[in-house]
Design goal:
Length: 723
């Protein structure tokens, strides 16, 4: 069921809160400002931005067709996106026009306008990072050259680059052979070697008495011995082959070439890191020798292919989207994987893909023709942390360079490699996706579309060390000008905002720009009102709340901003799918309070603590400061002990691993506020009393120490409980 927009009002308690100014605010709290019509403010901002950008184009001698400008003006989402979703709209407008020149009016204006907007927004953000400031420098030739090219030109013809390798004849009698020729000749002239290859195979079919095949069992690992040509990795793995190689090179006039990599220190199936520094340096030198020979003789590319332009990337995605499978194949391929006419905010991860087209095409063809969809590779061990050793273990001729999925499939890796394979493969089949960081782990996130409900969702894959609450997406957040990596919930809020109403979500982003365009005093005066009134149409513009909190000048205002947000989202409180979003904004508000000086009076601290508790504050550091300020060290000890007893007695800690991790982090934060190791030790010993008889939990049928108990034992210098 699609979410509908609802209105909400600021609670009466907010006015009272502002009137009394919490009594602990260092300056007077602001009253809700009602003199501004935020709808008119957005319209005025868009009009001013449009006039400014078109004037800039005129000053720079940039000509835009009147019908193109009219089209931008005629569609409210296009107009709001172009002029209202970036602090500087000029590159967005020009990027959109550049795409239209390359791909055609029909494709950009009518067939895939949202995808075009996603590319324009994404590339404008990338341009700010790579081309510096100076978009608006009318006299700067460098700034003008950095702007998207909107001069007339022929329509783009999508061409997939071919294999860039030019194979060299290493036995060419018309020239003097060099060291690279001799390295390759040794490998290619050598007799084939026998190697073991493992593969998964289904057991052979068995038939019953009626001749009907019985169901097969699970696939089993089968090892087969086969012969193949010698490659550089084989020499690195074998002392015997190294001796052969050294003798061959010496006989061909290269006495300076003598590799010494040991015997099976690094080999095709290596998983252990190489600890000996000198040994590692010798292996790395051998790898470089073979790698350079392969590149110089056209057995490997010199470098990775260039990234495509935005127009090339969009043309490639559109071509694939228009590919017509028969009905059975569509079902088998689950095609299309994601609608490319979706609202642009959920398409930006896709538009950010800069994989070379040749790499993408190789994988797309496998998917298109055989249904191959590999989002994982060979998981290896500690050697993956040593890129030179990981490369040396399987150095061999290949048509793709390091950094490609193809090389990742060949060499294997750990979570970072697996995450990249997954996210990039998702994008190749048209799904917005990105790698994401978790504590000590790399995962994958992607945008999902449910055809039955018509709803979008940002979901995680390959999680290992926690859930959405500890996941940070590596794709740049495109809903503010700061960009960069943000927690998972920020990208989930994009899907939530689009589900609520795509038009009002985009308008909410424009409202953010209108607010940011105000002077500092106006932003400070209106930071409560912008949340109270600005989230009425769409409560999921988290960047707007962030901006308001950053402009909150005192604790009272930050707390009032949170109350305004709660009022705007009260209809979602009972739905657990919004819980992380709601708690994240609450934590942002309390993080802003934490940045401000603590009240000096005990009574003021008590009032502040009461307000934080009313809002369900979970910031351990902030609460610890308040406990001490309000009730001294005894108050801190009492409250932490009560919290520990409540946690130890709760059912959640035995059923929910995340509950263990969250309380353990809280314990660690509390400990940070205690001065001196001895005082921390005494406090930790006291806290451990709350876990008497409850220091372990059961996970998957096994007893393990509670994470909070582990943290306290470490602080107290005590051994872990006996399991």
């Amino acid at each position: 069921m699609r979410l509908r927009s609802r209105t909400s009002s600021v609670p009466a308690a907010l006015s009272l809160l502002l009137a009394v100014a919490l009594s602990c605010a260092p300056a007077k709290a602001q009253q809700p400002a009602s003199s501004i019509s935020w709808s008119n403010a957005v319209d005025s901002h868009l009009t001013a931005a449009r006039d400014r950008v078109l004037a800039q184009c005129k000053d720079k001698g940039i000509e835009l067709p009147k019908d193109f400008v009219a089209w931008v003006d005629s569609d409210s989402i296009v107009r709001t996106t172009v002029y209202g979703c970036r602090k500087d709209p000029l590159p967005v407008l020009l990027l959109l026009r550049s795409l239209e020149i390359d791909l055609g009016e029909q494709l950009v204006r009518r067939d895939y306008p949202q995808l075009a907007l996603a590319f324009a927004i994404q590339d404008a953000g990338a341009a700010r990072k790579t081309k510096g400031t100076g978009w608006n420098d009318a006299d700067g030739a460098e700034a003008l050259a950095a702007l998207p090219d909107v001069r007339p030109r022929a329509r783009l013809e999508l061409v997939i680059p071919g294999d860039p390798r030019g194979r060299v004849d290493c036995k060419d009698a018309t020239r003097q052979l060099d060291v690279h020729d001799h390295v390759v000749n040794f490998l290619e002239d050598h007799a084939p070697i026998e190697v073991d290859e493992k593969s998964k195979e289904l057991p052979p079919l068995e038939y019953d008495e009626k001749g009907v095949a019985k169901p097969r069992g699970k696939a089993v690992t089968v090892t087969k011995t086969k012969k193949r040509g010698l490659v550089g990795a084989d020499v690195i793995a074998s002392r015997e082959l190294q001796a052969e190689f050294n003798a061959y090179m010496k006989a061909h006039g290269h006495q300076e070439i003598a590799i010494d990599c040991g015997d099976r220190i690094v080999h095709w199936a290596s998983t252990e890191a190489v600890g000996d520094k000198a040994q590692r340096e010798r292996i790395a030198a051998a790898h470089e020798l073979f790698h350079e020979a392969y590149r110089k003789t056209g057995r490997m590319p010199f470098e990775r292919d260039a990234a495509p332009t935005a127009a090339e990337s969009m043309a490639w995605l559109v071509r694939n989207d228009r590919h017509r499978f028969d009905e059975a194949t569509m079902k088998a391929r689950n095609w299309p994987r994601f609608p490319l006419n979706a609202p642009w905010p959920v398409l930006t991860m896709l538009a950010a893909d800069d994989q070379p087209l040749r790499e993408r095409e190789d994988i797309w063809i496998k998917f298109r023709d055989a249904g191959e969809f590999r989002t994982y590779g060979e998981y290896i061990g500690g050697i993956a942390q040593q890129f030179d050793m990981q490369s040396a273990r399987r150095v061999a001729p290949i048509a793709f360079s390091y950094g490609s999925i193809q090389m990742m499939w060949k060499d294997g890796g750990v979570c970072g490699t697996m995450g990249n394979i997954g996210a990039r493969t998702n994008r190749i089949v048209g799904m917005p996706s990105s790698t994401a960081g978790q504590p000590g782990h790399c995962a994958v996130v992607r945008m999902n579309f449910d055809e039955k409900t018509g709803l979008y969702a940002c979901v995680g894959e390959q999680y290992a060390t926690g859930g959405d609450e500890v996941t940070t997406v590596h794709a740049s957040f495109c809903c503010d000008d700061r960009g960069g990596r943000r927690p998972m919930v920020f990208h989930q809020s994009v899907a939530m905002g689009v589900n609520h109403d795509a038009s009002s979500f985009v308008r909410g982003l424009a409202l953010l720009r209108a607010y940011e365009a105000m002077d500092e005093g106006q932003r400070r005066d209106h930071c409560i009102d912008i949340v109270a009134r600005g989230l009425k149409d769409n409560p999921f513009v988290i960047a707007l709340v962030e901006a308001a909190l950053q402009n909150a000048g005192d604790r009272a205002t930050a707390i009032a901003v949170q109350d305004a947000f709660v009022a705007a989202t009260k209809q979602f409180v009972e739905d657990k799918s919004f819980a992380l979003y709601l708690s994240t904004v609450r934590d942002l508000a309390h993080a802003r309070v934490e940045q401000m000086p603590m009240p000096t009076e005990k009574s003021e601290c008590a009032v502040l603590l009461s307000e934080l508790e009313r809002q369900g504050c979970e910031r351990a550091l902030l609460l610890a400061k308040c406990w001490r300020a309000a009730d001294g060290e005894d108050g801190f000890l009492t409250r932490t002990m009560v919290a520990a007893r409540d946690y130890a007695a709760s059912e959640a800690r035995t059923k929910n691993r995340r509950s263990n991790q969250q309380f353990a982090r809280r314990v660690q934060d509390w400990a940070k506020t205690i001065e001196g190791k001895e005082r921390k030790r005494i406090w930790a010993e006291s806290m451990l009393e709350a876990f008497t008889g409850r220091d372990t939990i059961t996970r998957r049928g096994k007893k393990v120490a509670d994470a909070a108990v582990e943290a306290l034992c470490k602080l107290a210098g005590k051994p872990l409980p006996t399991l």
